[in-house]
Amino acid sequence: TSFSTPKKKKRDDGMREHVTGCARSEGYYKIDKKDKLKYLNNSRAFAEEPPADTQVRSPECQVRSEQRRLLSSFTGSCDSDLLKFNQLKFRKKKLKFCKSHIHDWGLFAMEPIAADEMVIEYVGQNIRQVIADMREKRYEDEGIGSSYMFRVDHDTIIDATKCGNFARFINHSCNPNCYAKVITVESQKKIVIYSKQHISVNEEITYDYKFPIEDVKIPCLCGSENCRGTLN
């Protein structure tokens, strides 16, 4: 038995009239080209101007937004430290590492650096004292003689042995041209190397490790006039 399907009518607003009262029960039907063009023309007018919150920001706007975010989240240091760290983040100093006359590898400046400037951030993994002791023994077993651990405070140590940047190549000197300083950015402590004096091109960057005094001495090879002879 065949039943004649009633012809589907359109309403005054252009939408198709559903005979059964439910669009799901009537299956799929094509849209006329006129209705489709009418819909596309209406939607194109809204798409020409995207909303303000979805607009793509230019790189300059993103940089300014990042600077404002750092400014609002920077605590524990003066405004000059904020500006210098902000500048260091977006314009890093030109540095290189090569063989040093002090010890093994060293970090050298490839551009003039003025006094009291942020040179580089000491980057690594933040670990606890217990983990640092375990890793120190493991590194000795692996034959890694140099230590790339930098203490931030009583509980936190930065380990740059296998995850760090060029800052780990900076050698010790009893008469250094840089110094290390702990600053707080976004509630996180960071170690930044500052310049004590003007640093010329191809001059090696050094700072005082300030190792604690121990019975087993580590010889110092900095060669400065006021060399203490040992690092600890």
Your description of this structure?
- This is SET1B methyltransferase.
- The structure is a single chain.
- This protein has 232 residues and is α+β, with helices and mostly antiparallel strands.
- Helix content is 24%, strand content 20%.
- The protein has four helices and ten strands.
- It has helices at 33-47, 59-73, 79-90, 129-142; strands at 95-99, 105-109, 118-122, 125-127, 149-151, 157-159, 171-172, 178-185, 188-195, 204-207.
- The chain has a four-stranded mixed sheet with strand order 1-2-10-7, with no helix packed on it. The chain has a three-stranded antiparallel sheet with strand order 3-9-8, with helices on one face.
- The radius of gyration is 33 Å and the shape is elongated.
- It starts with 32 loop residues before the first helix and ends in a 25-residue tail after the last strand.
Short description:
Its main location: nucleus. This protein has four helices and ten strands, in the order αααββββαββββββ.
Shape: elongated
Q: Could you tell me how far the N terminus lies from the C terminus, measured between alpha carbons in angstroms?
A: 102 Å
Sheet-strand content, in percent, reads 15-25%
Rg value? 33 Å
Keywords: Chromatin regulator, Methyltransferase, Nucleus, RNA-binding, S-adenosyl-L-methionine, Transcription, Transcription regulation, Transferase
Protein name: SET1B methyltransferase
GO biological process, one term: methylation
InterPro entries: COMPASS_Set1_N-SET, Post-SET_dom, Set1-like, SET_dom, SET_dom_sf, SET_SETD1A/B
